[in-house]
Amino acid sequence: MKVKDLFNTEKPVIGMVHFPPLPGSPLYDDEKGMKYIKERVKNDLISLQEGKIDGLIFCNENDRPYKLEANYITIASMSAIIGELKDTIKIPFGVDVLWDPSAAISIAKATGAKFIREIITGTYVSDMGLWNTNVGDLYRYKKLIDGKDISVFFNISAEFAYNLDRRPIEEIARSVAFSSLADVILVSGPMTGVAPEIETLKKVKEKIDVPVFVNTGVNIKNVAELLKIADGAIVGTSLKKDGITWNPIDKERVIDFMKEVNKIR
């Protein structure tokens, strides 16, 4: 996959559209219901698009605590809302279901998403317990549902988790790029809102030919430095009002951020 072909630009920036808690999750608001979720999601994607972001990821970020297998209602709710908003979406979009790649690729197929972002390889000790993955099953499912047009963004450094594979991250990246058919390799910091070390990013980028994106902690102050190395970035927290993950998108922050990005493109 060529990044420019998907996003029509070099060094694309993908903004996160975080769903409020969905039905079936502990924080779901029964009184506000699905109508509120749709309105919040619509407002965030409009703010990102009007701020000239390059792409979107729809994610059930606030379905805390997270599960390793999504509930049926999670898949149905996300698919329904994305489907209802399709006419509003004007730029390439992807799907991330925390933490179920089969659910993500199912929603992507149903809604016309161009990519998914997930933890797909490795075994971790995590906040969700022992976390094992199965990339072979995912790709066979992708084939089964004719998902050839859905790109797969591999997050190889899971937040809130400890990878039991103690190889250096650049060696993991090289192995994943070779054996797991990754379209993009994502490098994260230790948790949401924290950027990876520059040296870590450099080591990964030097080892592989697959595009490398920064997955966490990108903000207006560090984006120029990070994008000198990375091929793209995924941005969430720093585009929210007051820089708080659970707040709505702040369109003015998006505008200012993208002005900074365009200086280096």
How are the SSEs ordered, and which strands pair?
Elements: H1 3-7, E1 13-18, H2 33-50, E2 55-59, H3 72-84, E3 93-96, H4 101-111, E4 115-118, E5 123-126, E6 129-132, H5 135-144, E7 151-155, E8 161-163, H6 169-179, E9 184-187, H7 198-207, E10 212-214, H8 223-227, E11 232-235, H9 251-264
Parallel strand pairs: 1-2, 1-11, 2-3, 3-4, 4-7, 7-9, 9-10, 10-11
Antiparallel strand pairs: 5-6, 5-8
What does this molecule look like?
The protein is of the alpha/beta class. 37% of the residues lie in helices and 17% in strands. The chain has nine helices and eleven strands. The strands form two sheets. Strands 1-2-3-4-7-9-10-11 form an eight-stranded parallel beta barrel, surrounded by four helices. Strands 6-5-8 form a three-stranded antiparallel β-sheet, with no helix packed on it. Strand 5 (123-126) and strand 6 form a beta hairpin. Helix 3 runs parallel beside helix 4 (101-111) and helix 6 (169-179) runs parallel beside helix 7 (198-207). The longest helix has 18 residues, at 33-50. The chain is globular. It starts with a helix and ends with a helix.
Query: β content, as a range?
Result: 15-25%
Globular, elongated, flat, extended or rod-shaped: what is the shape? globular
Number of helices: 9
Number of strands: 11
Helix and strand run: HEHEHEHEEEHEEHEHEHEH
Q: What is the distance, rounded to the nearest whole angstrom, between the alpha carbons of the first and last residues? A: 20 Å
